[in-house]
Design a protein that fits this description.
The structure holds two protein chains of two kinds. Chain A is mostly helical. Helices cover 69% and strands 0% of the residues of chain A. Chain A has five helices and no strands. In chain A, helix 1 runs antiparallel to helix 2, helix 2 crosses helix 3 and helix 3 packs antiparallel against helix 4. The relative contact order of chain A is 0.11. Chain B has a single domain, classed as Lipid/polyisoprenoid-binding, YceI-like (Lipocalin). Chain B contains one helix and twelve strands. An eight-stranded antiparallel barrel of chain B has the order 2-5-6-8-9-10-11-12. In chain B, strand 10 and strand 11 form a beta hairpin. The two termini of chain B are 13 Å apart. The chains are: A mainly alpha, B mainly beta.
């Protein structure tokens, strides 16, 4: 059995917070593109930016899953009840599922749309379509994409509320172990000093 | 004497040789050119700085798209005494389309819409000119878009500004499906409203 580390790895932490900021941007772009009163050119640009950055969340998710696979996750809190553990597992599983589903559904929506504008990664690459043109299917995917995005937003609220509860009410280390460390741990400094001394 | 003048908008993309719209009008002042009367056709030169070739397209769930073509070329000759002898032709460079977003422009230039690489020019040439009233001309002509030529009705309001200056506004509704531009229909409307406003100078 692998030893469970006390903290998440640096890679997982970096990707977690990068994803948080990235998704906030993609969500805001999507919301603005669909709801704001804008001229056609601005709206077009917002849609294309949303599509490109949204598609890239799939790459981000793949990187996160890879980073998690490399190193074991820290264990659940020692005092957690069975129900808390189950709730935590459920919310995290749902988060990962929705993080994969929402961009995939968006990709299907774009692919099947009768207005043929494939995802372009800012002119550097064009992402191929993955479904035949079908107006009804595309509309259904648009609705699913919207419901999925709001489900993701709701899950993020639950996830963040739980993290804040751990930090400010339970006062345990659950939040801190996903927070970037400002200074290297004492043992790393000591190790570095030891190496310097060894070289000197 | 038949005079032809070419007018080109300021070349924004160094595409001076490329033209999108040309307006040609020929006017014969001769009552009977066949008997050798002097042909007093007046040629008019389009003022590119005062010419705007705009279009509007509607869509469902998307704002009305307004844009313009920046590169055009035209020849124009108008006979005020015998409007039927007037002639108008214009050519618009398809890839000079601008809607205010470079990626949107690229989409419209692409194969789903203007297919500007295969069909660089959009061309109109009058076949019949009729005077409706003192300031309105009904123009019938052939529009060639995506390599397909179809008749097009154009309503032209003409206003003499005095001296050697003439203002006109031409309006037409283009049924893009008739030219095989089907992409996005019916989300994107089949009709494209075209408005050409311009000023021309005599000689």
């Amino acid at each position: 059995m692998k030893t469970r580390p006390a903290r998440w790895s640096g890679g997982v932490i970096a990707l977690h917070w990068l994803s948080a900021a990235w998704l906030a941007l993609v969500f805001t772009l999507g919301l603005t593109a669909t709801r704001a009163t804008l001229d056609a050119a601005r709206k077009f640009d917002l849609y294309q930016a949303h599509k490109a950055l949204g598609w890239l969340t799939l790459a981000l998710l793949a990187a996160r899953l890879a980073a998690r696979a490399v190193r074991a996750a820290p264990p659940p809190g020692p005092s957690w009840s069975r129900a808390t553990r189950a709730a935590s597992r459920l919310v995290h599983a749902a988060l990962y599922a929705v993080l994969a589903a929402v961009p995939l559904i968006g990709w299907l929506r774009v692919s099947s749309a009768i207005v043929p504008i494939p995802v372009s990664l800012f002119g550097l690459a064009t992402i191929p379509n993955i479904a035949p043109v079908d107006a009804d299917f595309s509309d259904a995917m648009a609705l699913a994409h919207k419901l999925g995005a709001w489900s993701l937003a709701a899950l993020v609220v639950v996830h963040a509320a739980a993290a804040l509860k751990h930090q400010f009410i339970d006062r345990d280390s659950i939040f801190a172990r996903m927070w970037p460390r400002r200074t290297p741990p004492a043992d790393a400094i000591a190790g570095s000093d030891a190496r310097k001394q060894a070289r000197g | 004497m038949t005079t032809t003048l070419i007018s080109t908008a300021p070349p924004r993309r160094a595409a001076a040789a490329a033209w999108l719209v040309a307006i040609v009008a020929g006017v014969s002042a001769s009552a009977d050119p066949g008997v050798g009367a002097a042909d007093e056709r007046a040629a008019w030169r389009i003022d590119p700085a005062r010419t705007h070739i705009g279009f509007v397209v509607d869509a469902v769930g998307f704002p009305r798209t307004q844009g313009e073509f920046r590169v055009f070329d035209g020849r124009l000759s108008i006979d005020f005494d015998r409007p039927a002898a007037s002639r108008v032709a214009f050519t618009v460079r398809a890839d000079s389309i601008e809607v205010g977003s470079s990626s949107f422009d690229d989409t419209l230039r692409g194969s789903n819409f203007l297919d500007a690489q295969r069909f660089p020019d959009i061309h109109f040439e009058s076949t019949r000119v009729e005077k409706r009233d003192a300031s309105t001309i009904d123009l019938t002509g052939d529009l060639t878009l995506l390599g397909v030529t179809r008749p097009l009705m154009v309503e032209v309001e003409v206003k003499r500004l005095g001296g050697a200056r003439l203002a006109f506004v031409a309006r037409a509704r283009i049924d893009r499906l008739a030219y095989g531009m089907n992409s996005g229909f019916p989300i994107i409307s089949r009709d494209v409203e075209l408005t050409v406003s311009s000023e021309a100078l005599a000689g």
